[in-house]
Design a protein that fits this description.
- The complex is a heterodimer of chains A (750) and B (81).
- The two termini of chain A are 47 Å apart.
- Chain A folds into three domains: 243 residues, 2-Layer Sandwich (Aldehyde Oxidoreductase, domain 4), CATH 3.30.365.10; 164 residues, Aldehyde oxidase/xanthine dehydrogenase, a/b hammerhead (Aldehyde Oxidoreductase, domain 3), CATH 3.90.1170; 142 residues, Aldehyde Oxidoreductase, domain 4 (2-Layer Sandwich).
- In chain A, a hairpin with a 5-residue loop joins strand 11 and strand 12.
- Chain A is globular, with a radius of gyration of 27 Å.
- Chain A is an alpha+beta fold.
- Chain B has a single domain, classed as Ubiquitin-like (UB roll), CATH 3.10.20.30.
- In chain B, helix 1 runs antiparallel to helix 2.
- The model of chain B has no long low-confidence stretch (mean pLDDT 89).
- Classes of the chains: A alpha+beta (750), B alpha+beta (81).
Chain lengths: 750, 81
């Protein structure tokens, strides 16, 4: 670990204890979304469109309803028409993505759902729902969708962000633009200019656990919902909106989650399960197959990106021009906004134009995926930076150091950076032995860097002191990456009691205050700050109780290592256990709540170093060494920080070399399984070496920045730059599969 | 007065102005003031923006205090994963 600023010598923060959820997970006791079974529970099955784009002419559910065991069949007509009710466009999109009304917009779009006594009966009934479609022409890529005369997904879509507003609708939902300085002047000052065009395919988050939901509706209009999600408060809000009910009528309990990576911040099954349960009068479980996960849940965007950058012979970047089009899938909302803000954010470039387009097409609606939008832009920009360095014969770390954003740099997206640790991540890579490791034949080395904002948002926490002096820490942030351990470590540090004396709990929507989703790398920062605040309230309360017990002023009591101490040693210390045991005499139970809208988000940077070996006869690329350096601010739980860093890299390597959505000419996905959509497995990879850089975020009590996302930003360019170093071909399309690499090698030698 | 900076995408609503000095002790008051100056910009800013105040990014920042001489940037909305 690279400690770049002094560690204040915490007792618990920064240690590597056993994870609190470990035992239940390895013994199979942890309950995931599909594990719940309720008395009388029915099994549901969703009916999905086989067409990429079609009008729904009619739906006949009568045959399905008459089948054995069937208790309910629902269609879009069973839900409120939010458009007719004047709802916000975003809510209408959520509702019609959950279940189509007049038109299906992608293969896999939900049209109906059934509930029956057994899963087999439900599957048979789903096949018996008769739907008549009028198939429409479709568009699958940004090129097809942006072409003149392209079939339109939404008749009323007028491009936002263009002045004057276009008169005619198109598939371009919006345009974003950032610019500074004088582009012509900047390129005129450059000694080397590189211009390239890149394409990337949609890729899925690839979480191992498919979506699952169990709903139990009561006759009074209330419902209980259990689901696998990154934010059960958000599931509650979305589900209530789609059903047209008050959020207070729905209680949501977060199941254990088998991966999310952004893809479980949105709803799919939840309103369907509730409505089926209401219609059937019994609990209903819905679980997706892997096939459904691929066909109907959010991948991230496929893109086309053009980058032109210039630099002087001493490596100073003088200008950058970036054009990008991002697939949104069926509804507006690709992450092109974030892509535009992150594309060149690592660097201080005086002249630039970054232009982006959010484009709808007949594929599943995209969902968030670690640092949404940033990885594709970084693939393009960091590949061009590598080429500039080669042209100018400058070390790839040195060219980045010469232009690196530092505290006070005016970020390309507007504000000035506060204290950040980008330079420290570059230096950590350069100082590591991997950087000078000798390479063999057909081996190459690539460097790449990435930026992500991280997020704050709203969190709540409650801390209860139990009668024996242990503590329960309650939050509403589903634990997708080790947050329970981080909460427990910070609480142990604050309360001064052992980590093992603290039980971290994720509570349902009626038991703890509101929490935004577990996303944006925000939980250790924001929910952690709420936990710290609640612990400090508890400590204040404990000091007060000790003062009362000793009949002294409050300022004569300090809290040291889990016990109240008189500042002059005039009284024997009172431990947390002592005070808890006698809490009835000093005011009652010891407990505190804290809620906040987090301030002081600390930006994240990652620099990565990849060594590959390319087989020039087959085009197969093997990653042989990989090093990632990331500024965590403060690694509360280094094990989990490294896990996040390694996870982001592994997903990025899959994105770089293997993963892609493949559709046939009818817009039907051809590889909706892990057999044909191949994510990396352990045997494909070397150990991912981690260098945790700690440049503390001054706005957080422990210096936390957030670590879950930025690690996936650099890998694609790191791999591509390494391939270029190995076999001297510049790869501009993802995935860099063997056939493409071989083709590039062959083209070069022709 | 706070200095408000507009991204190139927002400048279509400000007649091309890149920055403007605005009175206002909260983000809400600044947005209201801007809407007076550039009719229609208030809805756009309220709907689809995060706000950076002196480099610190906020969501739901309507009532966030803005100090005298603060630097304010309205940013495109983005989602984390």
């Amino acid at each position: 670990m690279a400690i770049t600023e002094e560690n204040p010598g915490y007792k618990w923060v920064g240690t590597r204890p056993i994870r609190p959820d470990g035992l239940e997970k390895v013994t199979g006791k942890a309950r995931f979304g599909a594990d719940l079974a309720l008395p009388g529970m029915l099994h549901g099955k969703v009916v999905r469109s086989p067409h990429a784009h079609a009008e729904i002419v009619s739906i006949d559910t009568s045959a399905a309803e008459a089948m054995p065991g069937v208790k309910a069949v629902i269609t879009g007509a069973d839900f409120p028409d939010l458009a007719a009710n004047g709802a916000h466009a975003g809510d209408i999109d959520v509702a019609t993505n959950t279940i189509a009304r007049d038109k299906v917009l992608y293969e896999g779009h939900v049209v109906a759902a059934v509930a029956a006594i057994t899963r087999e009966q439900a599957e048979a009934a789903a096949k018996a729902v008769e739907i008549t479609y009028e198939v429409l022409p479709h568009v699958l890529t940004v090129d097809e969708a942006m072409a003149d005369g392209a079939p339109l997904l939404h008749d009323g879509m007028i491009t936002k962000g263009v002045d004057p507003a276009p008169e005619d609708p198109s598939n371009i939902a919006s345009k974003i633009l950032h610019e500074r300085g004088d582009l012509d002047q900047g390129f005129g000052e450059a000694d080397s200019v590189v211009e390239r065009e890149f394409t990337t395919k949609p890729v899925h988050q690839g979480y191992i656990e498919p979506h699952a939901a169990v709903a139990d509706a009561n006759s009074d209009g209330r419902a209980n919902l259990w689901c696998s999600s990154q934010g059960h408060f958000q599931m509650r809000a979305y589900t209530a909106t789609v059903l047209g009910v008050s959020p207070g009528n729905i209680k949501v309990t977060a199941a254990e989650i088998g991966g999310g990576f952004g893809g479980k911040t949105v709803i799919y099954l939840e309103p369907l399960a509730v409505r089926l349960s209401q219609r059937a009068g019994r609990p209903v479980k819905l679980v997706m197959d892997r096939d459904e996960v691929f066909r109907a849940t959010g991948p991230t965007s496929g893109t086309r990106i053009k980058v032109k950058m210039g630099a002087t012979k001493d490596g100073k970047m003088t200008a950058a021009e970036v054009w990008m089009a991002y697939e949104a899938g069926a509804y507006a909302g690709s992450p092109v906004g974030a892509a535009g803000m992150t594309a060149i954010a690592c660097y201080d470039i005086p002249n630039f134009v970054v232009e982006g387009y959010d484009v709808v097409c007949n594929k599943p609606r995209v969902a968030a995926y670690r640092a949404p939008g940033a990885p594709m832009a970084a693939f393009a920009v960091e590949s061009v930076v590598d080429e500039l360095a080669r042209n100018l014969e400058i070390d790839p770390i040195d060219i980045r150091l010469a232009n690196a954003a530092v505290e006070g740099t005016q970020a390309s997206y507007g504000p000035k950076f506060p204290r950040i640790g980008f330079v420290e991540t570059l230096e950590a890579i350069k100082d590591h032995p991997n950087y000078s490791e000798e390479l063999g034949p057909n081996q190459g080395r690539g460097v790449s860097a990435g930026f992500w904002f991280n997020a704050g948002m709203m969190s709540s926490a409650t801390v209860h002191i139990n009668e024996n002096g242990t503590a329960t820490v309650v939050t509403g942030s589903p634990d997708i990456g080790g947050s329970r351990q981080s909460m427990a470590l910070m609480a142990a540090e604050e309360l001064g009691i052992p980590y093992e004396s603290i039980k971290p709990v994720v509570a349902d929507t009626e038991t703890v205050g509101f929490n935004d989703v577990t996303g944006g790398s925000r939980v250790t920062l924001a929910t952690g700050a709420a936990v710290v605040d609640a612990c400090r309230l508890v400590v204040e309360d404990l000091r007060s109780r000790a003062a009362k017990t000793w009949d002294v002023e409050l300022d004569q009591v300090e809290w040291v290592e889990g016990q109240a101490q008189h500042i002059d040693g005039a009284q024997p210390p009172l431990s947390l256990g002592d005070l808890a045991k006698k809490s009835g005499r000093t005011g009652g139970p010891i407990s505190a709540n804290a809620s906040l809208n987090s301030r002081g988000v600390g930006a994240g940077f990652s620099t990565q170093l990849c060594d590959v070996e390319v087989d020039p006869e087959t085009g197969v690329t093997r990653v042989i060494r990989y090093l990632t350096a990331q500024d965590a601010g403060r690694a509360i739980s280094p094990d989990y920080v490294e896990g996040q860093m390694q996870g982001g890299v592994v997903q990025g390597i899959g994105w770089a070399l293997n993963e892609e959505y493949i559709h046939d000419t009818d817009g039907v996905m051809e590889n909706p399984s892990f057999l044909d959509y191949r994510i990396p497995v352990a045997s494909d990879l070397p150990m991912i070496d981690c260098s945790i850089v700690e440049v503390p975020n001054p706005a957080h009590p422990y210096g936390v920045r957030g670590v879950g996302e930025v690690g996936i930003v650099p890998p694609m360019a790191a791999v591509g730059n390494a391939i270029n170093d190995a076999v001297d071909v510049r790869m501009t399309e993802l995935p860099m599969s063997p056939i493409k690499v071989l083709e590039a090698i062959t083209d070069q030698s022709d | 007065m706070a200095r408000v900076h507009f991204s190139a995408g927002l400048r279509e609503l400000t007649g091309g102005q890149a920055e403007v000095d605005v009175e206002g002790s909260t983000v809400r008051r600044i947005v209201a003031e801007l809407d007076e100056m550039f009719p229609g910009i208030g809805e756009r800013l309220s709907e689809a923006s995060s706000v950076a105040i002196d480099g610190e990014i906020f969501t739901d920042a309507e009532l966030e205090p803005v100090e005298e001489n603060a630097e304010v940037h309205f940013l495109d909305i983005f989602q984390g994963g």
